[in-house]
Amino acid sequence: MGLDFIKNYGGCRVEQYDAQFPFVEEETDEDLEQIPENVNLNYEVRPRAVDWEPINLNTSPKWRPSKWSERPTHFIDGKDVGETIASVRSPSGQLVPIRLSQIGSIAMRVENGECRREFEVVDRVVSMAVDLFPWTEVESFAAALQDNGFRLLTVRPPGGIASYDFETMRKRTNEKSNTEMKALEGYAFSHGSGEPTVIDGLLQSRTRDFDIDKSPVFGVIKTQRQNYLHIKGIQVLYGLEVGQRTPVFNISKGWCDVISWFVRLSGSGGTTPTTGIVRVEASKVWFEKHHKHDWDFVDKLSRTIYEYRCRERSYGRAAISLHPIVRAEESLGSLFQPLSILSNRFYRLTHL
């Protein structure tokens, strides 16, 4: 069957549209993997909220991150650019979305103040629910895609039950390509040779890529989706001056214990309270094994992250971005083809 799979199952193009609310509320992979988080806000300070105060970074005026042997030198970023471009109808009647994506990851090394691309990988993937179709036909379709430079990602719904709701299925194809992008970030991470590394995002979803006991890996989270702080902590967070940090707290979530704290990279007076604030994560096991509650290390790491801040005001997210990550994103993006070209190629191959 090969690429005729699309036409044989009533394939049609899908024009781009704003995501809609699903008509059927169902559990997603993300929901099923959600593990409650326990937060200890007294990790660095005494167990009284009143002791929470903004912390100045106690580094010597002559101290420079560039001379610090433990400074992060590697920066890992991933990119997932895609759209739902078509749909097919399964033998049982479900309308099945097809997502075309370019995914990739990159490792950027900072040496003598310059960012150098050390590793990159880019892939073109097609994501769709396949268990609704005869497997021999799916295999033939996947092989034909592979021959033409695309890789099929098989989307399997929780419990093996496919939804009749198009938006629910579309969301799952998005999640699948993003999960595959994170796997590519793992390849990029393996090229860091155990050197101090910053990952753009949470550590918890990437612990399979590094040894949490031995690896100096730090997550920098730009978008805050959860409140870990008490009322006093929020007041401290809003009151941070540029270059200050909050006390360190501990987040326990199943397979990964992390220590975390907030740092303000920019903003403060005259801006919204959360402008320029990022959250930093490190493995609790690694920190206690190698630094034993050494808050001077936390100060130096915070100061280093602050010095790495993006200074290009033309960049939309400069207030919460690090320069090496911005360079990594730009470098990786330069390896991507315009999605419109890939979409038109897919349409020609499948006669849509």
Supply the key terms.
25% strand, 352 residues, 11 strands, eleven-stranded mixed β-sheet, RNaseH-like_sf
Work out the helicity level.
Answer: 25-40%
Number of strands: 11
Largest sheet: 11 strands, mixed
Q: Residue-averaged pLDDT, rounded?
A: 86
The overall number of domains is 2
- From the spread of the alpha carbons, the general shape counts as elongated
SS field, number of helical segments: 9
Span between N and C termini?
Answer: 16 Å
- Which runs of at least 5 residues are low in confidence (pLDDT < 50)? 27-33
State the order of secondary-structure elements, H for helix, E for strand: HEHEEEEHEHEEHEEEHHHH
Q: What would your notes on this structure say?
A:
This protein is an alpha+beta fold and 352 residues long. The protein folds into two domains: 1-19 and 81-194 and 338-347, no CATH class; 55-72 and 196-309, no CATH class. The protein contains nine helices and eleven strands. It has helices spanning 5-8, 29-32, 135-147, 166-189, 231-239, 284-290, 295-307, 323-333, 339-350, and strands at residues 12-13, 38-40, 74-89, 95-111, 114-129, 151-155, 197-200, 217-221, 249-253, 256-264, 277-283. Strands 1, 2, 3, 4, 5, 6, 7, 8, 9, 10 and 11 form an eleven-stranded mixed beta sheet that branches. A hairpin with a 2-residue loop joins strand 4 and strand 5. Mean pLDDT is 86; it is low at 27-33.
